[in-house]
Design goal:
The chain is of the alpha+beta class. The chain has one domain (5-117): Roll (Chitinase A, domain 3), CATH 3.10.50.40. Helices cover 19% and strands 15% of the residues. The chain has helices at 5-13, 58-61, 87-93, 138-145, and strands at residues 14-17, 38-41, 44-46, 52-55, 76-79, 102-105. The protein is elongated. The two termini are 41 Å apart.
Length: 150
Amino acid sequence: MHLTKKYLIIIVLLIGILGLGYFYIQDHPTKIIKQGDTVSVDYVGTLENGEIFDTNILEEAKKTKFYDEKRSYTPLTFKIGNHEVVTGFEEAVLGMKKGQSKEVTLPPEKAYGSVNPTLLLKNFQRETTVPRHQILSKTTFKQILKKEAQ
């Protein structure tokens, strides 16, 4: 799927948090997560259509086109209140207990922000073959680079 306006909107709308049971907190299992606690979570970020766009769970990552064998799929550790993750993700963890799982939908303002259509690339070609060198006429040079050849 190409990075389209719809994709960006959906990316910020839905983040499912799975396996939130990896809290590394010093107290007993019934402790409620609060500001200042350091937590470690497993997560699966999905689009509205259920497609996974990010996860730190190896088995889930292998199901996607984003799987990277060089990446370390380990729990995400962060301190509540340090703004190390998007606001909505941090807020979703607040109030949870060790071992608890939950699914949340994040609005754009609590995730990556609203889509700015002026920043979207249209008809962007991800890969292209470029000759090592090429002789261009001044006209072709100007058409490609939008400036005069010197």
